[in-house]
Design goal:
- With 347 residues, the protein is α/β, with parallel strands linked by helices.
- The protein has one domain (51-346): TIM Barrel.
- It has helices spanning 34-40, 77-89, 119-130, 161-177, 192-202, 223-229, 250-261, 276-286, 296-307, 313-327, 337-346; strands spanning 4-7, 13-15, 50-56, 63-65, 73-75, 94-99, 135-140, 153-155, 158-160, 182-185, 209-216, 266-270, 290-294, 331-334.
- The strands form three sheets. It has an eight-stranded parallel β-barrel, surrounded by nine helices.
- Helix 4 (161-177) packs parallel to helix 5 and helix 7 crosses helix 8 (276-286).
- The longest helix is centred in the middle third of the chain and has 17 residues, at 161-177.
- The two termini are 38 Å apart.
- The structure holds ligand PBG.
- Residues 139, 141, 143, 151, 186-187, 222, 225-226, 239, 295-296 line the site of ligand PBG.
């Protein structure tokens, strides 16, 4: 309730100090205009913070829409190269590749992961030839290649840990040979970081980095990704025996500690927005390069609501991305990377 006394010299109603207001603190002063807000802004988002996850499909000249991820396409390798060129032009440091493997190439143990002609390997070589200074992240996990959609080998209902790790090592080496710069184990098997590190080193890939999906939760927010890589209809059961329980936070710190001890160069938390508390804890407790994955379901919520006119899409996108920075993330894997980079460039 304004206590109107007389108009001040700007013609506004003068506001007299209320007895109960502590007038030495008017935090709104620092928000009074855009330049003032810019001056005190604590966090900034730049294109340096972005990793663009990209889906691959066989063929050429193909860009297939993904219904549950409006605005995201699956690219054939030639289109992926064009997209990579665009990413480079926009100064995005790195992309991440995920294949939609033809159903006929999927089997119980994910053999296609070891094929040096698989989609990820083809794309790595083609992109490196065209844009050598764009970083490429390749996931180590078997789910795009298995007939049952699990990240590891199934024995009955069980996902075998150690046998899976052997395959992940071979997969990582296959990807490194094709030019992948960063191996990102997303499988959540125990001990895989140490095994992959040793495997890469033994093959002379001691420069290839490991970005570990250290705290990866069993999440409903991966739904659209599974549409994108074609595992949503084939996945048997769920991934709760290897991905983390959403209720846990201390356990994430233990996972991170193990992966760092095993040689991870960078740590990832996934999903992103619902787990910003984990991002903050990891950064605060370990002080290591910390990444967050704004996953497919998070993208779908924002992009879907925006398409329906329920939220302002670009603003919601930028707000979600700065939230990761505020929580302490050094970078974000996001399907919005291209759009966000275009917006940042436009200023
Ligand atoms: C698979 C993998 C998943 C994602 C990245 N790697 C899905 C899963 O674990 O089922 C999810 C990414 C997203 O939802 O955007 N190893």
């Amino acid at each position: 309730m304004l206590h109107r006394v007389e108009d001040d010299r700007n013609g506004r109603p003068e506001q007299r100090p209320r007895a109960h207001l502590e007038l030495s603190h008017r935090p709104r002063r620092n928000r009074k205009s855009e330049w003032a807000r810019r001056l005190v802004r604590e966090n900034v988002l730049t294109t340096d913070d972005l990793i663009w996850p990209m889906f691959l499909v066989e063929g050429s000249g193909r860009r297939d829409a993904i219904a549950s991820m409006p605005g995201v396409d699956r690219f054939s390798v030639d289109e992926a190269v064009r997209a990579a060129v665009r990413a480079r032009e926009l100064d995005i440091p790195a992309i991440a590749l995920f294949p939609n493997t033809a159903p006929t190439l999927r089997d119980a143990i994910g053999s296609e992961a070891l094929n040096d002609q698989n989609l990820v390997c083809q794309a790595c070589r083609a992109i490196k030839a065209e844009v050598p200074d764009l970083g490429i992240v390749a996931d180590a996990a078997l789910d795009p290649y298995t007939s049952h959609g699990h990240d590891g080998i199934m024995h009955g209902e069980e996902i075998l840990n150690d046998a899976t790790v052997d395959l992940l090592v071979a997969q990582a080496i296959n990807q490194a040979r094709s030019g992948a710069d960063i191996i990102a184990p997303s499988d959540m098997m125990d001990g895989r970081v140490a095994a992959i590190r040793a495997g890469l080193d033994a093959e002379g890939f001691d420069d290839v980095q490991i970005m570990s999906y250290a705290a990866k939760y069993a999440s409903a927010f991966y739904g659209p990704f599974r549409d994108a890589i074609g595992t949503s209809t084939t996945l048997i059961g769920d991934k709760r025996t290897y991905q983390m329980d959403s209720a846990n936070s201390d356990e994430a710190m233990r996972e991170v500690a193990h992966d760092l001890a095993e040689g991870a160069d960078m740590i990832m938390v996934k999903p992103g927005m619902p787990y910003l508390d984990i991002v903050q804890r990891v950064k605060a407790e370990f002080s290591v390069p910390t990444f967050a994955y704004q996953v497919s379901g998070e993208y779908a919520m924002i992009a879907g609501a925006a398409r329906n006119g329920w939220i302002d899409g670009p603003r919601a996108m930028m707000e979600s991305l700065i939230a990761f920075k505020r929580a302490g993330a050094d970078g974000i894997l996001t399907y919005f990377a291209l759009e966000a980079a275009e917006r940042l460039r436009a200023g």
